[in-house]
Every structure is written in structure tokens, then in C-alpha cells.
## 1
Amino acid sequence: MSQLLALAAFGFLLGMRHATDADHVVAVTTILNRSQRLLDTTLVGALWGLGHTITVVIVGMLIIVFNVVIPPPVGLAMEFAVALMLIALGILNLTGSLTSVTERLTPPAPIHAHDHAHGGTSHGHLHGHGTQDGLAGLGRYQLIRPVVVGLVHGLAGSAAVALLVLTTIQDTGTALAYLVIFCIGVAAGMAVLTTVIGLPFMLSRTRSAQINRWLTIGSGVLSLAFGLLLAYEVAFVGGLFTGDFNWEPA
């Protein structure tokens, strides 16, 4: 029991640590600038964790049930997919495409009718209350986007370390428990992280549109630069394009 608890604690902490990987931080920063409430940023992190969990659970089950080993070319290819994702997010942010797509796919605010009486005569008028609250206010696109980004990140960085640990666990039940706890740690860590990252975007949006614009541009530049750097490291330093594979989960 003590070994199981230690393994569970290790899995949860590793999941929390994985949420703070640089590529994850950059990715969520580029998709947080349209969140209207602090709760929305927490939801984005949780949805990212959901997408991440789907990929990790699928691969983890392959490892547990079929003893699949992740070869270096596959690991490098997943890292390269993450780099492409970061490049795409950066370009979309810098060109404004991300904002325009989000605005087109976000549902309009609901319209309400109110009756008023003036001098004994009543009349009604229609008006909205800004953006909708909750899941409806975010829209399907804003809900699906972090899930897709999480799916791509599922095998990048330290997630591979977590999956490699599965190969050392002999008991199937223990391995499954470790996998679930790791995913819970990732989702919890990303929910907290996105809440913290989203705070400056929320404050800048309410106080200065110019500051919010610079934050958006900065997140786009950061995503593009980090994506290009990661792509170069994976393609040439890691050997994905040269065939001289040098991949270790980080």
C-alpha cells in the first residue's frame, strides 16, 4: 500500500510538472486572450487537460496491454507536431485570424425584452447583456480548440517519461491507477496555470485595449519563435530529418 501511495504521489506531481512545460505555457497563452472571465481561463486549462488525457490514456493502454515501446522517430515526430502547432498558433495570433475566427464562431449575446411605463403608457424594448455566461458564452470553437491543442501535446515532453514509467510497473491495476492519477495531475496543473496566466489578459482587457493588444502580439511572437526553435531542435539536433536519432523524453 505504501508503494502504491508513493507511486500515486509521484504520478500526480509528475502530471503537475508536465503542465508547466514551456511549450504548454506558450500554447495556452496564445489561446487565452479571448476569455471573458477568470473562470473561462480555468475551463480552458481543464479542457486542454482533457485533450491531453485522451492521447495519454490511449497510448498508455497500448503500453499496458500490448507492451508497446515508443521508438525515437515516433517521439520526435510528436515533438515536431507540437512545434507546428505552436507556429500555427503564433501566426494566427499575429495576423488576427485567431481573433476573427473566434468572433465569428462565438454565439451572440441573448436578446431580452423589457417593459417600461412612462406617464401611464407602457412600452417595451429589446437589448442584450454583452456576452453569454458559461459554456454557451465561449462557443463550440473556443471549447474545442484547447482540447485539440491538448491532444497534440499528449506525447510531448515529460508525458513520455510518465508513459515510460508504465513499462516498469508489472501489475496492470497499479499501472492503470498511475496513468489516471498522472492525467488528473496534468489537468489540475493546467487549470491552475491557465488561471494565473489569464489574469493579466483579463485586467488589460478591462483597463486598456492597447495593453491587451500588445499582450496578444507578444504571445503570438513568443509562440512563433518557440515553435521555430523547437522545430529546428527536433528536425536537426534530434535527428528527425537527418536519421541520426537523438531523442530522450524531457
## 2
Amino acid sequence: MPPKRRSAEKKVPVYRRVLLKLSGEALMGRRASGIDPDIVAGISAEIADVVKLGVQLGVVVGGGNIFRGGEAGPQGIDRTVADHMGMLATVINSLALQSALERARVETRVMTAIEMREVAEPYIHRRAIRHLEKGRVVIFAGGTGNPYFTTDTAATLRAAEIKADVLLKATKVDGVYDRDPVRNPRAVQFRRIAYTDVLTRNLKVMDATAISLCRDNAIPIVVFNLQVPGNIRRVICGESVGTRVGGAT
């Protein structure tokens, strides 16, 4: 008998509006730092694929591939100054992603929490909603505009503001584990886990402020492996991929 074919992937999105959180490191590829154009092009192609389904998509990109504000203390840089430098790094990544998306024929807007009108629009809530309703991808850059807040918290804040149905946390692993799967081969993956369990177990999904904000606003989080082609679409179309934090069980 011929081998059974894998069932066709679901093609109908189960979410109308989505916030996708990308780490800055996701843009590096195999480089030690900076931006790999091929990686950015690949991510853009996947985003373009889900936009064609009619999904309204917001994106937050970290800046760790260029500069990490929280790690600048040993370099003698004041924490507030360093965090502002990190926010500028997220703008660089956002502009790179915008350029790649526009090459993929996806209309895109970058909105920044810190005004820099020559390169991007200032973040205005109602304008962001209007862009999404018109089918444009909106990249939210510059974090929250305040030091001492991570881009995970910025992603959660924007997800709450735009009333996203879900926050997608793209990572380099398959989901949330009870311990570091890179260091411990016996690590066990969770398929579903509550917000409170993430906090009490101190699992490194997102920082505590981000998790609490998602819990308080009932925003489910799906943590999944970005390095598997097609995973963004699979998650948005309701396939069981990665780990779901909070939401209905």
C-alpha cells in the first residue's frame, strides 16, 4: 500500500487580528550579530502568506541582534541611556523588515513610540487600528518609549491596545518547556499552561510584566518555533503548534 498522505493544512484563519512578536536574534540567522537579508526575506514571505488570508497583523521586533540595553551596565553605560539605545535598535530592525515586506508586495507601516517622523510614523492608537483595518501590516517599533520595559512588554501592550485575538511569540524552540531544552534533553514540553503557572514556575516565556498584562487582558499567547517553515500560518489557522499560554483549555 502507498504511504498515507499527510492531511492538508488548514487554510482558514481562526484569528482575525494578531500580534506577532519577533526577537532581534531571529533576524541574525547564523551571524554573530546584525541582520541576515535572507532570513528577513523568509520571515517576510511567511507574513505575506498570512496577510493573503485576510488576517490583520501587527508586529513587534526586538533589538538584541544590535544592542541589548539590559546588558550595557558592565560597559559603563547608564541603564536609561542604554535602554533608549536598545529602542533605536528595534527601529533599525523594523525598517529592515518593512523594506523586505514591501518587496514582497505587502503594504506596511512602521510606527514608533519615540517620534522620528523622517523615518516612521509616530504611534497613534486610532491610526494604527485604521492601518490594520485597511489590510496593512503595522510594525510597532521603539518599545514602549520608556526605559526598564522589555519588547515583550511592548508587544503585550500593543496587543492589548489593538485588541488582538492572540499574541504569537516566535522563538527558536518548539514551545514552553519545564526546563531549558537546550541544556537538558529530559525537558518536557507543555502543550497548554496557565499564566499563573508560568509565573510561579518562573518559566522564561516572557517577562513577568508581559505575562501579567496578558492575563489581565485575557490575551492568549502561543509560543512556537519560527525556524519551521509555515508555522506562522499553521498557528493562525488553528493547528496544534507549540505551546498555548492562557486562554480556553
## 3
Amino acid sequence: MTIQLKSKLPNVGTTIFTTMSALAQQSGAVNLGQGFPDFACDPRLIDLMTEAMRAGYNQYSAMTGVPQLREAVVEKIANIYGHRYNVDSEATITAGATQAIQTAVTAIVQPGDEVIVFEPVYDSYEPVIRLNGGVPVYARLNHPDYRPDWDQVRALISSRTRAILINTPHNPTATCWSAADMEALAALLKGTDIVVISDEVYEHMVYDGACHESVARYPALAERSFLISSFGKTYHVTGWKIAYCLAPRELMAEFRKSHQYIVFSVHTPSQHALAAYMKFGTHNELAAFYQAKRDFFLDAVRDVPLRWLPSAGSYFVSAGYAHLEAVAGLSDVEFARKLTTEYGVACIPVSAFYHDGTDHRTVRFCFAKKEETLALAAERLRKLAD
């Protein structure tokens, strides 16, 4: 007997990240596709994790997270962005940023509610909205500069708009919103009940002297926003799946109602280790660390005949190939497969970040890798010039 099910996500299959990583492994390719480091985290963090486990921090933590870690997060945000959240009622530790985003959407979206997202859009947003009966509405970040069009956003807002989900620094485009963008968003939402869900997992990876424009910098946005960021991205421990969410008391109360039944609590020794580690302030060094990797990679690929787009933030950089006659006829999925299987470098086709598969003949590379990894990838990519 075959059980018949009606899928809640009928058009969702294996993610492009899983597909390309598997193809990279099969082909022996350098994997610059999925966004994770191939280098170790600070040994001090591992030592602190071990100490936490040996000290007996191995049972459930409080549903909201270990107090010391919430305090450290609140202090960091206050020092950098000037907005102080209440440790007890406005900060929650989560099992990764994806869980935080899902929980925020679950907390506020009712069936039929609309959520505006900006595409190319990170692939988890749309499914989470649909799982909660919501309707994703797509604003376009126009290729190749990928700037938000605020007139377009204004036209998309309706009586059914429940939330706007933003992401800066942006994955996959590596762009960063400006102060003018944040002020435009605040002005657009004034007098509405629309909630902002702000994915800021790359907050410490902003380059060339710029600063990250968090919703926490803007009182008119902070009062209506879930701010979400990631310890995994910041401290090179993506496999720990630990993040945080900050929001005003009323929003956080709803968030926690869902959080306690989605995951309840988060890995306890990780929280104690991170609370102790945050005292070192290594997040302040992250922009310089990743800018050096970006510059190293872009220098190494300067002779590669791809058109490299600016990378203002995150640990990604994209490149176009439509000008290359030999491959211009390939879709970006086909080109990504060709790079992986024939040239030995895996990347991600940017069309995967569009709900309708829009294809600008652009692919994304991750430079969160050792220099030897980036150098090897560049050496292989230079063969495109042959």
C-alpha cells in the first residue's frame, strides 16, 4: 500500500547547495559553492566548549537561552548599534538563524498573510512562509547592482502585508543596504502594523570601511523588527547551529510561544562556551579577516575571463559569463555544472535564488576558505581563458 500525501511544498526538492556539494565531491572539485569555512575555528572556543561540558553544563538550558550569553549579545548590540534590548524579555538564543527566521514567521504570519521578500532571495524564506499559510511577494533587486527599488516595494504593500523580510549583507549578491535604504524602509512602514524580519547573519562582514546598517541603528525599525544573527557565521562554527533573535517585548513574547514548541532550548555547552568567548571581542576582527580573503581571491582570479561583481559584504562574490561566446548559451545551472565537472571548481547558479528561475548568466562563489584552497580554485578557473 502506498500512502497518498498532499505535499505542503510540492515544488521543493533537494536544495541546490546539497546538489552542488555532492557534485563537487564526486568530481574532486574545489567547493566554493556552499557557504562554510574550510578552516578551523579559534582553538580557545573548542577549549571553552570542553570546559563547559566538563563543568556539567550538559542538561537543558532555559528556553530563552543561557543568561550570560543573552547578556553578552545585548551588550554587543548596544555597543555597536546604540540600541539596548532587555536581556530578560527581548533576547532569545536559537538553534541557528534558519530556526530563528522560521520561528519569527510562525509567530506572526496567519494564512493568507503576505510577506515581501527581496530576490534573488535566500532559499529558506519562501518555504517557511508557505508552510505557515503565508504568501511570498517578490521585490526585485535589479541585476547587476542589486539595489532595492523603494517605489516598487511601496506598490507591493497591500492590506494583507504582514511582514517584510530583509537580508543585509545580502546572500547571494554580496551587497549591503545603505543608511538611505534603511531610512526609506522606515518611512515606508510608518503608521503601519507591518513587521520587519531582519536577517543579519553577515553583520560583521562589511568591507572597505563601510559599517553594517542594522535595524537596531534605527529606532523606527527597531520597534517593529526581529533582528536575527549567527554565532556560526561569526565564529566559523556553522555546524554548531546556534544564533540569536532580538525583538521588542511584544514581538518577542509571540516569538517565544512558537520557539518553545519548535526547539524549546539550544545546545547548552555551546552557549556557555560562546558567552565566555565573546569577551575576547574577535567579532571586531572579522571584517578585516574576510576582506583579506576577498582581496586575495579577486587578485588570484584577475586573469580569469569572468566579469566579477562587487562584494561589499558577506563571504560571497558573484561573476557573470554571458560575454563568453563559448558558454554564453548555457544556463547558469549548466555553466555551474560545467565548472564543477570540467574545470574542478564548484559554485552556485544565482537563478536558484529566484522563484521563477530568472537567469542573468551569473554564478556565486564563496571565499570563506584557506588561501591554498582559493589559490587552487583560481588556478583551475584560469583555464577558462584557454
## 4
Amino acid sequence: MVLSPRVPHSLALGALFFSAATVLAQGAALPRPPGGRVVTVSTPELRGNEPGIAVNPNNLAQVVGVYQGPARAVYSTDSGRTFTTAEGTIPRDWRSAGDVSVTFDDKGAAYLSYLVFDKLGSTSYWRKGAGRNGIYVRRSPDGGKTWDAEAVPVRAWYKGDEPGMQYEDMPRIFADNSSKSAHAGSLYVGWIEWQLDKSIMLFARSTDRGKTWSAPIRVSTQAGFPRDDNGDVVGFHGVVAADGTIYAVWNWGLTIVMATSRDGGKTFTPSRVVQNVGPPYFGGTGAVPGLGRVFGFPQVGVYGNNVYLAWTDFRNGDIDVFLASSRDKGRTWSAPIRVTSDSLHSGRDQFFQFLAVDPVNGDVYVQFYDRGADPNNRLTGLTLARSTDAGRSFTNYAWSDSTFEGHNAFLGDYTWLTAYDGRVYGIWAEPATVAMLSTTGASPAATRVGTVVRIGTADFRRKAP
């Protein structure tokens, strides 16, 4: 979603520390994932959050992470062991940039998508009084090391006073990488458009490696409220099946809806409700203690005929992570199961989930922030859950190596996860430690809560007996 207006401004540096329990509390109960490793890839003064991550299916040594701060990329050439910050990703002709995501195409080029704007409209009513804004995509031919000097607009309002100007928000980019698809190499972006009287989901495609983008089409049959709050349309996420079918999901009111395309994104089926859920915005009295805000927006994954949905809501009082499965390409759905391993009605929150399905072996992964080991519902770690039985059951692993307390830190609106051939890559934000901030020379009295971006890797490749 949008950037700085939602970030707390009056928090002192004294609140910036991890819990004194530097060993993950839930580590006693949850095993570490095989080959588990976590590295920090940003500096705390950037307040990095809202990240994305992708691995090159043609060269698994190449991994690209991106994050809002304002639109940065890091790249790895050693399968995620180390990362280097790339140059040339930050737009210089806009005041703000963020809501980043990243993908690789079938030829191994990486693409960074982000939104830009100079100013927002009214609080949460982004179209009212908004200025110029847009969505851009930038390409890297070499695994994220260098990026094209010119970003390509997907949709942009260059002056801010054009007739019919709207406010574009929360873009997500993904690619068709299947050799079996008639649309292999196509790139896709879906996003929210805020209008004065409603919110809708838009979609654009590129068939020339991101050089140009189609005119946006509306994919949300149902419109949402025009305010960035419960009742809008929000949280677009899309994936491509091996046969080229596009599955796209988002929240609409107290539901998750889905639309599909079988012609490379030229047209979509009418969006229809596939799950009834709790409110996706956990604000007000439903907020997660210690954090500025938390959302439960959905993700979709696919393998063969199996389609999966993951989301969070508080139907059980505390916030839980849920997964529902379809065995018939999204026509019918199982009852939701809890991915989390704590007891029902535990009073401990799990939130900001992200789903990834391994396109090689079909394993299902979900990562999430987890307070399951803390009866006070404050200490937070990262958990990685894995299913090898098509989403029927999950094993939970301690993904991160320490816990933190939020102290009203702004962690963004989402994390990200990807998997390929047994290797898993996750990216998320955490509050910075005092030790991290001391290296920046920042004044404790003047510094907001810092955040850093971390990347976790694991290796579940099946070993020969």
C-alpha cells in the first residue's frame, strides 16, 4: 500500500531493540529448517519494509530481493548466502517510490515493479486531492546487478491534473515461465485503482519483455469502497500455472475473490467469491499489539490441478494463518485449515503470511510472523511452514534466529516468499537493534523506529538414500 503517511513519526530510539531473549523462544519447540540461514540486507536508517524476492529458474545461484526504502534491490550470485545492493533502481523524478515486487522471466531477466507519487490525497481516501502518480517496471539483464536506466510506465499520470486521473496503488508483477504455455515470456502486473467513488482491480500485460504494456483492463467484477479500509478491493496477487492459466486473487469486503485467464491476460472470467474471511485490515481494537498495522491479504499458488489460498484473519479471536485447497483448478474448495502449530484460541497472533508453491515438486510453503511461543503475545519470530501432502498438513520450522518486540514499528504491508526445486527464499522486515542503529550515528532523540530487511534461505532438496 502507500508509504510514509502511515508510518509512526514520534517514536524514540530507546524503543529500538530486540527482546533480551536473543535466542528465538520458539526454537525449543520448532526445529530449524535444513540449511537454514538468515542475512540482513539493508541498513536501518533506510527503514526498509514491504519487500519482494525472486529466484532465477534458469540459474538458481541468482536471487534478487527488493524493498521499499524507497525502491531498492539487492542481488546474490551464490544462492542467497550473500547480497550486494544494486545501483540504478531508485527513481529520481518522483518524490516517493515503493510497493515493490520482483520476478524473473523465462530467459533469466529480472523485473522490478514499483509505484511512484509526489503526494497522497486525504488520509486513507487516496484519490481525493492526490497528485501525479503511476506504476513503473525496470528490467535487469544480469540477475539484478544492473538495471535499465529508463523505467517503463505501466500506467502513469504525469501531471496530476489530467482528466480522469485516478490513484494507482499496490502493484504486483509476475511472469509466465512455463515451457508448456503458449504465453511463455509474458509479464503481468495487477493493482488497485482508487477512484473518488470506488476501488477496482486493474491488470496489464507485456508480450515484449517489458518494453511496452497493454492498456489496463478491469478484472474486478465487484467494485469496492473508495477508502483504503475494510470494504475496498485490496491485496492483488497472481500466479501462472504450467499451462499458462493465470490465477488472480484479492480481498473484496469479507471475502477472497478469484478471476482466471486462459488467453495470456487478454480477458478474465468474472471475479467470484471463493472464500469467506474476516476483515483483512487489523486496525483499531483488532490491531496486533506493538505494531503500527497488520493486514491479512491473500496469496494464491498452483501446481497441476491443485490451487491454494493462504490468508490470515481473527475468526478464532487471535490471528491465525489459514490455507484452503482446490483439487479441480479452483472450481471447488476444501474447508480452511490452520497452518500454525499453536493451540486453538491461544491468544497468540500469527500474521503477515505469504504463500509459495514449488513449481518443480509441488511442495507448499507459508511463512509468517509468529508469537506462538510467547504467552504475553509480544515476542515475535518468523516461522516457515511446509506441506508435502498437497496442503493437507504442515510442519512448522523456526525460520528466524531471534525474536523482537515491535514497539509500534512499521513493518510494511506484506512479506514475500518463493521456492524452487526444494530451495526456499523468504524476505521480511524487523525492527533494528540498538547495535545496528549505533553504526549510523543517528541521534536517539530524533530517530524514528528503524527497520531492516532480512532474507532467509532453506534447502529441502531430498537427499539420496
